[in-house]
Amino acid sequence: MNRKRVRLVIVGFGFVGFLLSNNGGSKLMGSTLGDTKVMDGIKKLVAQKKYLSAIKAIHAADPKGLNSDYVLEECQVAREYYEECINFQIFGFRDLGPNENLDEVRGTPGTYEMLVDEPEKLLKAGIARDPRNAALKQELALYYLDGLNVAGSSFDPQEKDPHGAAIKILADIRAQPGALSADGWKELGINYTSTQDYADGLPCFRAATRLDPTSGDDVYNEAVCLFNLERDKKALPLAEKSVELYGAGHADLNSIVDAWGLCAELRRSSGDKQGSYNALRAAFKLRPDDYWSTRRLMDFHLKDGLEGQARKDAARIFAMQPTNPRMPQDILDLFGAVGKTSDAVDVLAGLVPLYQDQQEAVGNLEFHMGDGYAQLDKSKEAHQAWLAAKAAFLKASNPNQEAVNAVESRFQN
What is the pLDDT at residue 191? Predict the structure, then answer.
């Protein structure tokens, strides 16, 4: 359910000059509507990827930042079309050539001009002048959320709880007809589903999809909500539609692979086993070593009684991250779900000889073998496996004390 994020890359700046906009004079008065021809011209510049020219046009039209329309446009351009930023508070722009892609040039060394004023200040001042302007409020909320996504802990706005403030803003204005854009609805939906509240997340993603039917993210997220609400028949066509939209929009591979994985789950629940395998094959063509696709494949093989194939899947999963405890735990869980815990222990034991040059990996295997034996009420074998795990962890080139402590806790229990 993750929203697509823009990576923050700090590089050397090639400063041409500074655009010190909106920093002069008091801001007690101002109009709310921008000149239609000027606004159309600014939007045309953005469509042409002339982002720096668009910012300059905004500043020329509204040098003191008193007009709500221009403030909104400036902050949207800063948030969505910057080429470089510092902590999501200072933004740099340039005009791109017809064959340049913003995602490819963003964060690379180059020459661009900096917009110094922080969007938060511009938006708060605009809201103070125009308190009924829902668009400004939504933009402030989206700025807070994008700042957290892009800059993380380096994002330091005036607002002490930017995430909480953003969600409150969106929730407060959602009842106003047309107040929220597709992005606003999507953010509300993500907030609900982050706490597994799929019932409240579903109408948010539906509203987002109505406003932007081309968004693969929103269609996929709607399908995820339906899947978790056990409404699989309605979820499947949406999941398949998200694959089409992601492909048409040239989305990152992770998004398409995730969508194929959801298709696999939903086809299987509808009784289409072959279709579920076909969906996973499509995912593997894009990312052959994808963890979730391999985990699903092992699950499907086990449920279909194909234990030999499942054992191969287990070996592949463990090889992805041999020192990660999640890998052998997945093997125990999925084999155990079909009553084959003993076979899971056998799989783990069979991997031990292959990792003798990686003692932390051996410890990881032995530790989970002990857990498997404990589930089978074989306390003697469990004790022996945990002792072997502790010895392996201590022999590792960089002993993992946390892992040793985990073994010790097994003896105490």
Answer: 96
Run of H or E including 16: strand 13-19
Q: What phi-psi label fits residue 87: left (phi over 0), alpha (psi between -120 and 50 degrees) or beta?
A: left
Pick the CATH number of 289-413 from 1.25.40.10, 3.90.1150.10, 3.40.720.10, 1.10.3720.10: 1.25.40.10
Domain residue spans of the chain: 1-129, 289-413
Q: Is the C-alpha dihedral spanning 264, 269, 274, 277 positive or negative?
A: positive
Strands 110-115 and 90-93: antiparallel
Q: Is 304 helix (H, G, I), strand (E, B) or coil?
A: coil
Residue with tokens 């929009």, as numbered in its chain: 249
Kindly report the backbone phi and psi dihedral angles of residue 7, in degrees, each rounded to the nearest multiple of 5, phi listed first.
Answer: -75, 140
Q: At CA 89, angle to CA 88 and CA 91, rounded to 5?
A: 80
Helix (H, G, I), strand (E, B) or coil at 67: coil
* 28 pLDDT more than 70: no
Residue 239, both tokens = 């999941």
Q: Does position 169 have pLDDT exceeding 50, yes or no?
A: yes
Give the per-residue pLDDT at 250.
Answer: 76
Q: Would the pLDDT of 8 be above 70?
A: no
Question: With bands split at pLDDT 50, 70 and 90, how would you rate the model's confidence at 17?
Answer: very low
Computed over its alpha carbons, how large is the radius of gyration of the chain?
A: 27
